[in-house]
Design brief:
This protein has 12 helices and 28 strands. It is an alpha/beta fold. The protein has 3 domains: 143 residues, Immunoglobulin-like (Sandwich), CATH 2.60.40; 326 residues, TIM Barrel (Alpha-Beta Barrel), CATH 3.20.20.80; 43 residues, no CATH class. A hairpin with a 4-residue loop joins strand 18 and strand 19. It starts with a helix and ends with a helix. The relative contact order is 0.14. It binds 2-acetamido-2-deoxy-beta-D-glucopyranose (4 copies). The site of one 2-acetamido-2-deoxy-beta-D-glucopyranose has 3 residues, from loops.
Length: 573
């Protein structure tokens, strides 16, 4: 009995405790608006230059899923669609093409004498085109992000589930109709490799971005070459057919570098020149593999050192990227940068915004080569909430850009007819495209690369839901102090901005504020409502060194204060 009484008392105490805990949690909701003070020290001595390379793009040849081909017929031509009805057209694949290395052809037989008004035919759900023939709307969306680098062609696409299905650059150059293509076993589709090594170097050139070539390091998701057999990967002497892999592998990174950088008279540079590009591509970054540094891949370190020494010897200026995470402890091998990949829930990513404030300041720089809100099994296609967490994480990268030198969202594109991974930045089909909130979030960071960052101090009882940074950047004519702030929480915030140390006046008439928000934090964009969540820019007549502003719940706000007579500072930048 006594025991029972004590247990009951304990239960009552516990529920009281729970009650008070939950009251504590609910309290901020019922308090309404929050207040916050954000102080920005714009003095020149406290400022630091952000690396020119900070924000770029990661292009993975994944989930494009529209290419038919392969050695077998009938070839899988899903998810292509027939235009007109099935009685008006007959479509099949057969081994009848005039290209000996690419034998599968698509046959269309038109069965209608009087065809329907809309015509008949077949469309594929997305087309990238060859060479510089990229789809304009899609490429403009990339240009608008002002990317400083392009990491390609993967991702796991580089590795393959099996080595024999990995990306091999030699098979992706030359006349595209002669490229054999290969089965991308990670993303489960046949790729014709029309968008190959050469085209991706060209894409980087078109975007004015540094190419970052990720090559297969003799390791796939499920098999790997022994380090004693890695030599042909480093320096090829023979070329063998893919069917002979992985018995003798010919992967050859030095040849790939000569293809990009060699003179037009060199063995591989002349191949590039014959394709119409006698000028060298300015390839300055390579990554040795993708996600290959973990204890299921014991050969990585051995392979890495062989590649490292070969590349450093032949091209001393090339920056070499290791897959091993050096953020918590130093690497045991030389590298210029190391990859860091992060996929988390929105709440966890928001909480990890300060990840790199504790990282050692010596040693290789950080390349956050894949980041996104992503949870396995979650079918979200990219919500406002996800973009806010990512914005906070990127603000953390700006603040730590003395050690973080590059960052890119993943994945960049998804074909809506063949969604292999959600969410993505840009969704397209054969004729439409839209940006997810994560795409629009990135447009707020386009001016950060190469800008100047200032220290900020946030004072608020609500600071656990806020993240902020301040930069000075310039466009052709003007200089702006840009203060970005994420309000990740459900409350409106009455914000006081205070910029100290400004050596120029703020011109309110040229200042602006841009806000990314929506009614519901789980709102997404779609083909039906492609701009439901998008940045909205307006004038900022209240702009001043000291100013008030309201941050709406679940929002990302960028204040651009135009600065007058900043000529001297501009010269410094
Ligand atoms: C933070 O704000 C509180 C209340 O607004 C104020 O009392 C305190 O002095 C501030 N702290 C700093 C460091 O500015
Ligand atoms: C925001 O706070 C300031 C004082 O810090 C106050 O003067 C102003 O009225 C508040 N604005 C709103 C909209 O609550
Ligand atoms: C602010 O900028 C506008 C537009 O460039 C200019 O006409 C105006 O004179 C500037 N105001 C001040 C106070 O410098
Ligand atoms: C948000 O709500 C307002 C008022 O209810 C409505 O007019 C507006 O269209 C909504 N916006 C979105 C993006 O749903």
């Amino acid at each position: 009995m006594g025991t029972k009484g004590a247990a009951t008392l304990l239960a009552i105490l516990c529920s009281l405790l729970l009650l008070s805990l939950s009251c504590g949690c609910l309290a901020p909701e019922s308090e309404g608006d929050q207040t916050a003070l954000l102080e920005v020290d714009t003095s020149w001595k406290a400022a630091r230059k952000i690396p020119q390379t900070l924000f770029g793009l990661f292009f993975e040849n994944c989930a494009l899923g529209f290419e038919a081909g392969g050695p077998y017929t009938p070839s899988n031509i899903d998810p292509w669609s027939i235009i007109g009805d099935e009685s008006s057209i007959y479509v099949k694949t057969e081994r009848a093409s005039c290209f000996s290395r690419n034998i599968v052809a698509l046959r269309m037989e038109i069965l209608c004498a009087k065809c329907p008004a809309g015509g008949v035919g077949i469309y594929n759900p997305g087309f990238w085109g060859m060479g510089h023939g990229f789809r304009k709307e899609l490429i403009h969306m990339l240009v608008d992000l002002k990317p400083q680098f392009l990491r390609f062609p993967g991702g796991t696409f580089v590795e393959g589930i099996l080595l024999r299905n990995a990306f091999r650059w030699r098979e992706t150059i030359g006349p595209w109709e002669e490229r054999p293509g290969h089965y991308g076993d990670v993303w489960n589709y046949w790729t014709d490799d029309g968008l190959g090594y050469y085209e991706l170097l060209q894409l980087a050139e078109d975007l004015g971005a540094e190419p970052i070539w990720v090559f297969n390091a003799g390791i796939s998701r499920n098999d790997q070459v022994d380090t004693t057999a890695i030599a042909p990967f480093v320096k090829a002497s023979i070329s063998l057919e893919r069917s002979e892999w992985p018995l003798i592998l010919y992967k050859d990174v030095l040849d790939s570098l000569e293809f990009a950088r060699g003179s037009a008279k060199s063995t591989w540079g002349s191949v590039r020149a014959a394709m119409g590009h006698p000028e060298r591509f300015p390839l300055k970054y390579v990554a040795v593999g993708n996600e290959d540094c973990d204890n299921t891949k014991p050969f990585y370190q051995g392979h890495y050192l062989k590649f490292y020494n070969a590349i450093r010897g032949a091209y001393p200026d090339i920056q070499i990227i290791s897959n091993c995470d050096g953020s918590s402890e130093p690497l045991d091998h030389p590298a210029d940068l190391y990859d860091f990949h992060i996929y988390n829930s929105a709440n966890d990513l928001f909480l990890k915004k300060d990840t790199f404030s504790r990282t050692s300041r010596t040693g290789p720089k950080v390349f956050v080569s894949e980041y996104a809100v992503h949870v396995d099994g979650d079918t979200s296609k990219g919500s406002l909430q996800a973009s806010l967490a990512e914005a906070a994480f990127l603000i953390g990268l700006e603040v730590n850009s003395d050690i973080v030198h590059m960052a890119s969202y993943a994945p960049l594109f998804v074909n809506d007819n063949d969604r292999k991974w959600n969410p993505d930045a840009i969704v397209f089909n054969s004729w439409q495209q839209y940006g997810t909130p994560s795409y629009w979030m990135q447009t707020f960071f386009g001016e950060s690369s190469g800008a100047v960052i200032h220290p900020v101090r946030l004072n608020s009882s609500y600071s656990g839901s806020l993240a902020a940074s301040a930069i000075t950047w310039q466009d052709n004519e003007d200089i702006f102090l840009r203060i970005k702030i994420v309000n990740f929480g459900p409350n409106a915030v009455n914000l006081t901005l205070s910029a100290t140390g400004l050596e120029a006046g703020v011109n309110a008439s040229r200042s602006a504020v841009t806000v990314l928000t929506s009614n519901d934090s789980l709102d997404e964009n779609s083909f039906d409502d492609p701009l439901k969540v998008k940045p909205v820019k307006s004038g900022l007549p209240s702009a001043a060194e000291e100013m008030q502003a309201m941050l709406v719940p679940h929002s990302f706000t960028s204040f651009d204060l135009a600065l007058d007579e900043y000529g001297e500072l501009a010269a410094d930048m």
